[in-house]
Design goal:
- By secondary structure, the protein is of the alpha/beta class.
- It contains 23 helices and 16 strands.
- The chain has four domains: about 100 residues, no CATH class; about 325 residues, P-loop containing nucleotide triphosphate hydrolases (Rossmann fold, 3-Layer(aba) Sandwich); about 130 residues, no CATH class; about 45 residues, no CATH class.
- It is flat and about 135 Å long.
- The strands form four sheets. A ten-stranded mixed β-sheet has the order 5-6-4-7-8-3-9-14-16-15, with helices on both faces.
């Protein structure tokens, strides 16, 4: 404003100020010298030679010279006032801007560290693609803090490649990562019936569910019926879920799922796969027989009674009578012949030891559902009592399915139910691409804390192909070794980690975990400095006075050497001792590339990158940096995200300060 208004005012000021100024100048210049002017005074009678002031006299007497001088004066006045205005603006505004946080061109928002729930909710509720605030970047290779950390966000293009958080107990995996991410997912467009996320959460501790219910209540304050979207599967709970009731799946498919669970039970025991093959085949035939006898509905309790109590013998006799009476359809007859041949001519003709081993393989899993009445009511209920809608409903209507079961208390049962829920979820996710009428816009999310308790070998296959179905997998585990101990195969674990592209390593003491982190983050050229001092002298003698050697002519030289070496970007000690709680090393895929924001298909110009890291630590589409997690309870609703009170609170409550 000063650069525009003040020169205009100076133009009008010229009319009454310039003539008196020139008259004053001419009176001074008209004297013989400056010394004479000082001695005689400005009002003295001396008058003089005009040749000493030719230029000013021309300006005073010539209209053209006067006009030229006026324009020059106005130009200088405009430049002076413009520079003064810019200088005052920067001096006054910059400290204020540094206090309240300035907008970032890359991030499109405030880059101060005081992120509050109101801002995260506002970003999530807008009609924009899904975006997740992962944490804050202070410095790339150091855990030291700065006043203006940079938020790191990942869009859908990045998130659907998977995210795994690794860290020892007490480092903030649940508190700083999974709780925070779950809360943001639940606040993403809760009012939109077509795009609110469908989520499967496996709670192995039993307390994750309570926190999720609080998040749903927060998100549901402005959403219609979001709390009604929650489905909790637990022992003695409201919902009845039968893992074996899949009428559209063939018995061989259901038996293969049980084989996956049996493999998990047999980890570390050098189990012969021959017995697993036989157990899988027996389960498939048992499901066929149970469906044939019970009208297509089968439970784990039916399988257990059929094998342990030898009920298959009575069922086969009943079916034989129906066959003789011609009461079986052609399809039922084929099924009966297959079942009869297995139990009569293969199973019963086997050696007793072989039969006992196969029975023990099957019943150690089925017996889990028959020993406790509450378990039997929850997972072996009659068909008319089943009320779990299935995962197609999660895909189409954005349901939130939570398995609440303590893995330490119900170890085998938790593995069985979680594996079946995962496989059902994965099947619905992949069939949404081809199922008529399926919702293909809704983001689908799988969340599993303490993933090593419920990991299965088939997860790697799903993680590698679910990207096309816009499914986001977020898991947390303690270490690489804990996964190997759970799955029993290092190659399988490496495949799972390979398909979970985004990784955050919190503090860890596990050697294999640290080595995996260092391999992923790569190496860089570092310079090592070495110094050496050399002293030489001539005519040196031992001085009895000083007690040392002295020389008449001595030289002292110093050499400094720098050696380029290739070392890991993040040293080993950083993972063991350098990282504090809520701090980790991140390996993140930015998606979308340099020209996209990670929320589209990678085509076109797109928006600025959404890593919001300003290029620090970026290699292509990969960001490797030290990351600071944001505890979920740091996000607090404020009275307006852009209000003065909110800005003041953000400046005071910045995380990490």
């Amino acid at each position: 404003h000063g650069a525009i208004v003040l020169p205009m005012l100076s133009y009008y000021w010229w009319g009454w100020s310039t003539r008196p100024l020139l008259d004053f100048i001419m009176e001074i210049v008209g004297r013989t010298s400056m010394q004479a002017s000082i001695l005689q005074g400005l009002s003295g009678p001396v008058s003089l030679a005009p040749e000493q002031a030719v230029l000013l006299k021309a300006i005073y007497t010539s209209p053209e010279a006067y006009l030229l001088f006026m324009r020059l004066y106005l130009g200088l006045a405009w430049a002076f006032f413009y520079l003064c205005a810019r200088f005052v603006y920067h001096i006054a505004v910059y400290p204020l801007a540094s206090k309240i946080g300035r907008p970032s061109a890359a991030s499109g928002g405030c880059v101060d560290s005081g992120y509050q729930l109101a801002e995260v909710e506002a970003r999530s509720r807008e009609a924009k693609p899904l975006e997740l605030l992962i944490g804050l970047q202070h410095q790339k290779k150091s855990t030291a803090l700065i006043d203006q950390p940079v938020p790191i966000r990942l869009g859908l293009q990045s998130l659907r490649t998977g995210l795994i958080v690794t860290g020892t107990t007490g480092t903030g995996k649940t508190y700083g990562a999974l709780y925070s991410y779950t809360r943001q997912f639940l606040h993403y467009r809760p009012d939109d019936p077509e795009r609110k996320p469908g989520i499967l959460i496996l709670d192995v501790k039993g307390n994750y569910c309570d926190q999720v219910l609080q998040f749903v209540a927060e998100a549901g304050q402005n959403a219609t019926g979001r709390m009604q979207d929650v489905i909790i599967i637990e022992i003695g709970g409201q919902y009845r879920y039968n893992p074996l009731h899949k009428p559209l799946l063939r018995p061989q498919v259901l038996a293969n799922r049980l084989r996956v669970i049996l493999e998990t039970f047999s980890i570390g025991k050098n189990h012969d796969t021959y017995w697993l093959d036989k157990a899988e085949f027996m389960i498939a035939e048992a499901i066929k027989l149970a469906r044939l006898v019970h009208g297509g509905y089968v439970t784990f309790e039916d399988i257990d009674r059929l094998i342990r109590r030898k009920e298959y013998q009575g069922h086969l006799a009943q079916l034989a009578r129906k066959e003789r009476a011609g009461l079986l359809s052609s399809e039922e007859l084929e099924t009966y012949i297959s079942v009869r041949d297995f139990f009569t001519y293969e199973f019963e003709q086997s050696d007793e030891r072989v039969r006992n081993i196969i029975e023990s393989e099957v019943t150690r899993m089925t017996a889990t559902f028959t020993t406790d009445p509450d378990i039997r009511r929850s997972f072996c209920a009659p068909q008319e009592e089943l009320n779990f809608p299935g995962f197609d409903d999660l895909v189409d209507h954005g349901k939130i399915v939570i398995l609440r079961m303590n893995a330490e208390e119900y170890q085998n049962l938790a593995k069985i139910i979680s594996t079946y829920l995962k496989l059902d979820f994965q099947s619905s996710v992949m069939t949404r691409l081809v199922r008529p009428g399926a919702n293909r816009l809704r983001p689908l999310i799988f969340i599993n804390d303490e993933y090593h308790f419920m990991a299965s070998r088939t997860d790697s296959k799903f993680f590698s192909v679910c990207r096309e179905a816009d499914c986001i997998n977020v898991v947390a585990t303690q270490s690489f070794t804990s996964l190997v101990d759970s799955l029993g195969d290092k190659t399988v674990v490496e495949t799972i980690l390979q398909n979970l592209v985004n990784k955050i390593w919190l503090r860890s003491d596990d050697h294999d975990t640290i080595e995996a982190a260092q391999r992923a983050t790569g190496k860089e050229i570092k310079f090592r400095r070495s110094e050496s001092l050399t002293e030489s002298g001539k005519n040196s003698n031992y001085s009895w006075m000083f007690g040392r050697s002295v020389a008449r002519n001595s030289n002292l030289s110093k050499s400094v050497n720098y050696q380029a070496v290739e070392e890991h970007t993040f040293p080993y000690d950083l993972f063991r001792q350098g990282l504090r709680i809520m701090q980790g090393v991140a390996f993140l895929y930015l998606g979308g590339g340099r020209n996209g924001n990670g929320n589209g298909n990678g085509k076109g110009k797109g928006n600025p990158p959404t890593n919001h890291a300003g290029g620090r630590g970026m290699k292509g589409d990969i960001l490797t940096t030290v990351i600071h997690l944001i505890p979920f309870d740091h996000f607090r609703p404020l009275p307006g995200a852009g209000s003065r009170v909110a800005r003041k609170a953000r400046s005071k409550d910045a995380p990490g300060r």
